[in-house]
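=== Per-residue structure ===
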Amino acid sequence: MSRYADTAGVPVRSTDDVAAVVRAERTARGWTQQDLADACGLTRQSINNVERRRSDLATSSLLTVLAALSLQLTVTPVYRNGGERQDKELTDGGLDELLALHTKQPPS
């Protein structure tokens, strides 16, 4: 078994994608959920919830989990419509609209 999963360059666009990457990297190392929890100072139930998409982690906790797995978060622009970058101006309410776009929830 390889010590690392083949997750390099995998696009992460949803909590399902995060869960899949965390689980793949953890199992490739032969770690239990408790091993990962111990490595990043979280509970085993927190790791289980992430892998089963039952709850979202705070960004700081997510970064801690990724660091424990020797991973980092990289943000890249998404190109659509013939290669044009889709930028969104953040004005009053713009952040809510942007988050809603990515979480598929109506803006508040």
In short: Residues 15-28 form the longest helix (14 residues). The chain has five helices and two strands. The beta strands are 79-80, 84-85. Residues 77 and 85 are 7 Å apart (CA to CA).
